[in-house]
Write a structure and sequence with these properties.
Helices cover about 35% and strands about 15% of the residues. By secondary structure, it is α/β, with parallel strands linked by helices. It has a single domain, classed as Rossmann fold (3-Layer(aba) Sandwich). The chain has a seven-stranded mixed β-sheet, sandwiched between helices. Helix 1 crosses helix 7, helix 2 crosses helix 3 and helix 4 packs antiparallel against helix 5.
Length: about 240
């Protein structure tokens, strides 16, 4: 529906559009986490639930991930913030709600803090303390030689490590976000700690909402229906208020 979307480097951004009811001018953009892509099961489940309720959505793979063009080694939070900006340009005329998982959550905070085109934000197990995350998860891996979580398709680059360090944390951007914000985190998340969401929620402006899903891991494996229900109801509420 939106034709070919390319980032500022000219790389094609792969996406899937889920249609909604005619006349609905809100669209939900779904962004994934590090080593992920638009086809993660819980991302697809959320998009399908929204579409079934008549709410359009667009699942995207950031450059270097999934079937999008670009090198995985060049995938950083800062680059993905720009990728998201290119997608927003293609959605001119829509009211955009952004849902970001994990690293995509950090992307959402940074983009929303500077881009008025996003009218509502959802952070799913959102990464907040980026430097602490990279040091905790990859301290035993040599950049440009090793891999993220021993996945051969996901080489750990110095570019990624340096970008995480330069950002440090996105908690300082919370006060710059003036739109409704939902944060969802599982109590059993051992990848991005629950405390990340608690730290940034404390600094966030109203209206804000935090939902802890008991027992849920980082990708909501056994709790996808719970997560989908929470986000779906929140999104529906935003649309009805406007």
């Amino acid at each position: 529906m939106f034709g070919t979307i390319r980032n500022i480097e000219g790389e094609k951004i792969d996406y899937t559009f889920h249609s909604g009811e005619k006349g609905v001018k809100f669209i939900v953009v779904l962004g994934h986490g590090v080593t992920g892509n638009k086809d993660r099961p819980f991302v697809v489940a959320l998009a399908e639930a929204l579409s079934h309720d008549g709410i359009p959505s667009l699942r995207m793979s950031f450059s270097g991930n999934g079937d999008s063009e670009g090198r995985f080694e060049d995938s950083t939070i800062s680059k993905e913030v720009k990728d998201l900006g290119s997608v927003l340009e293609a959605l001119d005329g829509w009211n955009i709600l952004y849902v970001g998982h994990s690293m995509g959550g950090a992307v959402g905070v940074l983009r929303t803090s500077q881009d008025p085109r996003i009218v509502g934000l959802v952070s799913l197990a959102g990464m907040v303390h980026t430097d602490a995350f990279s040091q905790r998860e990859f301290s035993g891996v040599t950049p440009d030689k090793g891999f993220m979580w021993d996945e051969p398709d996901c080489p750990l680059s110095k570019t990624f490590i340096d970008d995480c360090a330069a950002i440090g944390t996105v908690v300082t951007r919370a006060s710059m976000i003036k739109v409704p914000w939902l944060l969802v985190h599982g109590s059993a998340d051992d990848v991005v700690h629950l405390q990340d969401s608690l730290d940034i929620f404390e600094q966030a402006n109203e209206p804000k909402q935090f939902v802890q899903i008991e027992g849920a891991d980082h990708v909501f494996s056994e709790h996808t229906p719970n997560m989908v229900k929470v986000v779906h109801e929140w999104v529906r509420g935003q649309i009805e208020r406007n």
